[in-house]
Amino acid sequence: MTFETSSDRSGASYTARAGTAPQSGNNWLGFLALAVAILLIVPVAWVAFSIFAEDKGTLAHLAQTVLPDYVANTLVLILGVGIGVLIVGTSTAWLVVMCEFPGRRFFEWALIVPLAIPAYIIAYAYTDILSHPGIVQSTLRELTGWGPRDYWFPNIRSLGGAMAMFIFVLYPYVYLLARNAFLEQSTCYTDVSRTLGRTAFQTFRQISLPLARPALAGGVTLALMETLADFGTVAHFGVHTFTTGIYRAWLSMDDLVAAGQLATMLLAVVLTVVLVERAARRQAKFHHSRRVGEFFRCPLSGARAWLAILACSTPVLLGFVLPVVILINLSYVDGHDLFTQRYATLIGNSLKLGFLAALAAVAPALILAYAARLAAGPVTRAAVRMANLGYAVPGSVIAVGILMPLATFDNAVDAFMQATFGISTGLLLTGSLAALVFAYVVRFMAVALTTVEASLAKIPDAMDDAARSLGESRFGTLRRIHMPLLSGGLMTAGLIVFIDVMKELPATLILRPFNYDTLAVQAYRLASDERLAQASTPSLVLVAAGLIPVILLSRRIMATRVGRRTEVR
Amino acid sequence: MQMSLRKPGARPGFRASFQSFGVARRGLMAVGAGVLLAFTPPAFAGGELNLYSSRHYDTDERLYEEFTEKTGIKINRIEDKASALMSRMEAEGANSPADVLLTVDIGRLWAAEKDGLLQAIKSDVLDDAIPSNLRDPEGHWYGFSTRARVIFYDKEKVANPPQTYQELADPKYKGMVCTRSGSNIYMLSLLSGLIEHVGEDKAKAWAAGVYANRARDPEGGDTDQLRGIASGECAIAISNTYYFARALRKDVRDLSGMTDKIGIVFPNQDSFGAHVNISGGGVAKHAPNAENAVAFLEYLAGKDAQNYFAAGNDEYPVVSGVAKSASVSQLGDFKADTQALDKLGENQAKAQMIYDEVGYQ
Questions:
Q1: Residues 304..333 of B with a Cβ closer than 8 Å to A: which?
Q2: What total of structural domains would you count in chain A?
Q3: Distance of alpha carbon A425 from alpha carbon A416, whole angstroms
Q4: C-alpha–C-alpha distance, residues A262 and A248, integer Å
């Protein structure tokens, strides 16, 4: 990358700027952000503190026996998933933004639909058709007369299978962010590049891709953190990852300390990778003020158009259509009756939690992102980065990290109230919906923050400077300049959190109030009892309900089209 | 309100004193956690029972409803893996609302007792109804149904199926045996039992031998091992009895039509008997409604409840005189291992180490 300082404010600028020093008047923002970050870090820190505790020798045992394999599996898995989501997400985003082909407008929103399906549910669905006696191998045996061991068939329950599942449902993170980044890029650069004789592909590789790097890095990081935190999918496939080790220490060896220590190691690695990636591009700022000139989509025809359609339809088919068809078939065979009070309650609970968590996540995300932009000293910056970490911790572990401090707080309040006033307050927060919503905010802050930061980064500093030099206060700048520009990004952040919360399982299971079931919980109950066919009903409803925020999201996406958005950016 | 239902039984006068502080309490909550008001559940007039359960069977709901009808006690429940529920109880400490912990394996009950999460209760009803080897002598936990972990085989392919667990490690069954993962709780309990019977060294050699005989790398649950026989991948499988009995009772996809193909062996009938585990429960250490909790456990040991509790999941009832369900009867009678169940919990971590050391995935 050889972009140097350029401050052409009218075109996309790729400005090298020294880190802004904290300015007076921003201190309150810094402190607020620090307070929010600390609150979000408490559960992670609680887990991390286990490194000071003594485990039962489990760690040494695991390290000597199975852990090396788990680490190797995990590395292969995240490498595969990382490359997979990068290729699928980036190439489809590039196609729908830069090219014109039949069905492009449809694919533009359809490509995010797989986001509605949890990885563990897609895993159930694919296992059902691909393992014997599923339909694929049964048909194969009937057609060929082969016996069980006469032929080789890829085992879906394998590392490769798990990799495929994660790519199918996680690539939309990259797609979403990459698409936005490509849309924001000025046509000037690409036009110049083409005029100077570069091919479309060279332009993509040498201009668009480097410019989109923060977005791509953000998307891949999200996908990989979710992969690392997953247990449902890998457990169903019998693939042993680092997370398997964490659960093994906890569930089999009854050693929560060792589990916490393993989780901390995982976090340390994630944090290192995130910081290294950021350091590698710290020199540069990636904002683009506004697009100039008419946007021109390269029309594709003939074989190229077909290839583009193939490239865009495959992820949608594999990540959404096929699994949904399998689930519909399963629920037709042996499903639950959907039209009952019970399912109405489940749907209501899932939507309510998603909505509350989305609301609750956006405000702190905005504070953190804004502080990182304006008021960041090194401490705040580090705190903001660490507030992201909840996403990489397996849900059950982070849930325990939330449970312990919450209950400790509740019990302390109770003890104080008993001693002082002679009344018992019991557990105020533990077992309440508030605790659960807090857990979601901790867990999905990375998702909200990445989205808000990405949209904040698109507002050039020049705009702040202009507003300030025209006499607007910091807060006024936020309210009158940034908020209108950010509203779309905040909405997107809220919707993605909404979707993630609806799919979330382990933290919901352990932290929920009495008698509070969600669609994900119901699907899990049936699946853990090895009744996958019946689990198809709640799974389908979960996907259908998840489509509501996805459709809202896609409507937002259709709104951010070139042409409509030239007025401000 | 949430707090007013915590300890009505445990602290007489608590509610009255609490109500007089109603205003103060609201003020406190508004300051401390105003949102909570909107979240707290409505109050219930009658008695309550708070259940932390790792059972997840739909039939249990009828069981709970009937208990409420009979006693007027409302059941609140949370379901999760036992380890997660235990962590929650531990975190909640003395203020924990949990009254009863139900698990589907003795290993977790044993750990819960060891971690001080359960209290010893005295109940003649329970002592009379439940055989002594299926309950804690001190009354920390009780088993309410049993399941055996036994050998299934392909009748066509296997002329001489293994008659003992030990034989599963015999090289003559190389490439034939299917099991689920070595970190699964049922596999751990099975090995824990063997450690007690044959010693650690032989148990380790056994685990290595069974793994060497594997038809495929461990994958899926017990039903998947049975399906493996149906589809031809596996000649021999280890599974809990209820997964097979369920396929006899109702349609289990890709298995029910094939059950004639599958034979069952209750192992070690000439020695220590087939490995048996329980689904059971105990009263929580800090149970706010301890009396209701005991009433609930006694209800579970009653004949009607036994029908739901056991038959609903195709398990064996523990109370003598309660008939086995049709599907369970089809499996036949057998001699069950009567070793002390707490050994299964005690040896669990050791069992996991052995599986790890021999590379049993």
A1: none
A2: 1
A3: 9
A4: 11
Q: Measured between alpha carbons, how far is A107 from A128 in angstroms, rounded to an integer?
A: 27
- Identify all chain B residues contacting A428, using CB atoms and an 8 Å cutoff: 3, 29, 32-33, 36
Does residue A483 fall inside a structural domain?
yes
Kindly report the pTM of this predicted structure. 0.83
Interface contact B29, partner A, CB < 8 A? yes
Q: Nearest-CA neighbor of B278 among B232, B320, B250, B240?
A: B240
Q: Is the per-residue pLDDT at A239 higher than 70?
A: yes
- Cβ contact, residue pair B185, A252, below 8 Å: yes
**Structure tokens that stand for B276 in this block:** 């048996």
Domain that holds residue A70: 29-559
Chain A residues with CB under 8 Å of B59 CB are none
Smallest CA–CA distance, residue B266 to chain A, in Å, is 23
What does the pLDDT look like over B91-137, one tens digit per residue?
999 999 999 999 988 988 999 999 999 999 999 999 999 999 999 99
Distance in angstroms between the alpha carbons of the first and the last residue of chain B: 48
Mean pLDDT of all residues belonging to chain A:
83
The pLDDT value recorded for residue A332 is 82
**One-letter amino acid for residue A17 of the chain:** R
Show the tokens assigned to A48.
């991390």
CB contact under 8 A, B35 and A147: no
Print the SS3 string covering A317-343.
HHHHHHHHHHHHHHHHHHCCCCCCHHH
Domain holding A85: CATH number?
A: 1.10.3720.10
How far apart are alpha carbons A184 and B218 in whole angstroms?
A: 49
Under 8 Å between Cβ of B101 and B281: yes
For B338, what's the count of Cα atoms within 13 Å in the CB-facing half-sphere?
8
- Separation of alpha carbons B127 and B294, rounded Å: 12
Domains of chain B: 3-29+45-145+278-329 (3.40.190.10), 147-275+333-357 (3.40.190.10)
Cβ–Cβ gap B2/A403 under 8 Å: no
> How far off is chain A from B360, nearest CA to CA, in Å?
9
- CB contacts of B93 in chain A (<8 Å) are 407, 411
Percent of chain B with pLDDT over 90: 66
Percent of chain A having pLDDT more than 70? 89
Q: Do A399 and B84 touch (CB under 8 A)?
A: yes
Q: Per the CB < 8 Å rule, is B83 touching A514?
A: no
Q: Which of residues 309-368 of A touch B (CB under 8 A)?
A: 330, 333-334
Query: Is residue A6 included in any domain, yes or no?
Result: no
Residue window 513-532, chain A: list those with CB within 8 Å of chain B: 513-516, 521, 525-526, 528-530, 532
Residue with the bigger pLDDT between A455 and A306: it is A306
Sign of CA dihedral B200, B205, B211, B215: negative
User: A329: which chain B residues are within 8 Å (Cβ-Cβ)?
Assistant: none
Q: Which of A171-180, B154-163, B265-274, B277-286 shows the lowest per-residue confidence on average (mean pLDDT)?
A: A171-180
Tell me the Cα Rg of chain A. Answer: 25
Is the pLDDT higher at A395 or at B75? Answer: B75
Q: Which of B182, B133, B134, B166 is nearest to B265 (CA)?
A: B166
Distance from C-alpha of B76 to C-alpha of B52, rounded to nearest angstrom:
9
Peptide bond preceding A133 in cis form (omega within 30 of 0): yes
> Closest residue of A to B82, CA-based?
A251
Best-predicted range by mean pLDDT (A2-6, A33-37, A169-173, A221-225): A169-173
Mean predicted confidence (pLDDT) in A299-320: 93
Residue A424 included in any domain: yes
**Residue A525 has what pLDDT?**
81
Any idea what the Cα angle at residue A49 is, between residues A223 and A435, rounded to 5°?
65
Interface test with A, best of B20, B39, B154 (most A CBs within 10 A): B39
pLDDT tens across A425-448, in order? 888 888 889 999 999 999 999 889
